[in-house]
Amino acid sequence: MVVNMKLINNLLEKWKIELVIFDLDGTLVNTLDKHIEAFMLLFKEIKQQIPREQIAENMGRTPKDTLLTLLPKLKNDKTRLEILANRKEEILTTLLVEIPKLPGSLETVNYLKNESLKLGLASSTPLFNVRKMIDKAGFGESFDVIITGEDIVIGKPNPEVFLKASQKAGVKRESCLVIGDSPHDIEAAKNAQMKIIAVGTGEHTIEQIKSAQPDLVIKSLTELLTDTK
After folding, report:
1. Confidence (pTM)
2. 196: helix, strand or coil
3. CA–CA separation, 153 and 142 (whole Å)
4. What is the SS3 assignment for 96?
5. Residue among 167, 125, 123 nearest 146 (CA)
6. How confident is the model at residue 5 (pLDDT cuts 50, 70, 90)?
7. Helices (DSSP H) in 18-159: which residue ranges?
8. 156-208, pLDDT tens digit by residue?
9. Check whether domain 5-30+99-228 has CATH 3.40.50.1970, yes or no
10. What are phi and psi of 123, to 5 degrees?
């Protein structure tokens, strides 16, 4: 008798996973455009012209890291850097009216929760906006561990955000699976020596995320819930 098993169950068993750590923007919720718009409005306020494409390339990083890349002179003015990063998040808050879920995101989270897996959320966004997004999107209290930009010193691709999630959950790094949408997520997970599934629902193309060499590439989270033999 052939028993069908969902793809995610096959992977969890094969890799001996105890904790699944999700990225938020571009992975679970469709909010990357709102982050980009917040940066563009910020740059308009301070009379800086930064192309949208350059902003998009930095999605997945902390606001401070993004600002330092796009406005290198801020390296010499940490006070202004702090002010601008906070202002970007203030603008973002006003834009978070509706939070569209990405295909299969809530279903995947609920499925894993029912499988008694520990679930983590690791985002470069500050906690107040993370909480607003997951509440509005209907994820509620799904996550056992939440690590945000306020909990880390160095953002992705540094592995700190994922390592802190595993430490807080009490799970060894080799028993952790990261699910994210950007090359920054992939590099950070690999630096943490964790398994990484990359999903093509963010600002980066499938080719771009494949080039970062994740353990698996999927087009959307719905693929994880498909039956396999």
Report:
1. 0.90
2. strand
3. 25
4. coil
5. 123
6. confident
7. 32-45, 52-57, 63-70, 78-95, 105-114, 127-137
8. 999 999 999 999 999 999 999 999 999 999 999 999 999 999 999 998 899 99
9. no
10. -130, 145
